Amino acid sequence: MVNRGYAYTTIIGSKYHGRTLLSHLASLYPHSTLQAWQQNLNNGEVTLNGVTATGSESVTPGQTLVWNRPPWVEPVSPQYFEVLFEDPHLLAVNKPSGLPTLPGGGFMENTLLRLVQKQSPNANPVHRLGRATTGIVLFAKTPQAASNLCANWNTPKIRKIYRALAQNIAQHDTYEILTPIGLVPHPLIGSVWAANLSGKPSKSLARVISRSTSTTTFEVSLNSGRPHQIRIHLASIGHPLVGDPLYGLTGQPLENLPGLPGDGGYFLHAQFLKFRHPITGEQINLEAALPSGFSLHQ
Q1: How far apart are CA 271 and CA 289, in angstroms?
Q2: What integer pLDDT is reported at residue 297 of this predicted model?
Q3: Structure pTM?
């Protein structure tokens, strides 16, 4: 699919004062080289405070930087989802692997959000799952429902339970994982969320469901909502997800050419979601069936 292009807008921060615009672009969007950014500038794609930029400008704090990215062919992604629950206030769906929840990382139109809004224009996700993660995504259709769910999302009032297929054989049956999560360097994209002693407090509870000769299947409950939390937490206790291209045994990016956060290959499934309906007070218990990959690789 060719999308309509996108305008990426940022405000220049004080720490970048005096840097050339070309070098700032290359550090802000490290997926492209200096030469590629110069070509984008030559094509007239970048403006600084509304004026088409050449790249030689010295940036100053408070300036508005806009990259008008031309339309591009998006990566292929699944174009379906399964409805698990729907009423006038809520929509819960089962997301397939490979479909981003929200725009980003080269995806603008091939997303779960766009697919859902074709059927329910007012629906917006209360949370997100990684592109390769499968399972339950909850949407709110009304501002009242969204406000209530967002206020309670990382509290015991909403139970989020995942199934994860991990490397290595667990020595214990249960784990309370408190590894802090923060940004660390990544060679391709600048930084990525990972285990970081100076990061934000995080808590997961992992329970062993089964063991094979070389893997462990965990049921994981989240008590906080950090990016890639389950992948990082299980890796930090010596159990990276099977096929995870990004996180190694310590919960840090792999030392030898780590993949990107959206790359697939791992098995993580948002299986259960339990909460009180934000409007009616009714108890809602949702379950998304496990994808076939779990049984095939166990």
Answers
A1: 7
A2: 61
A3: 0.84
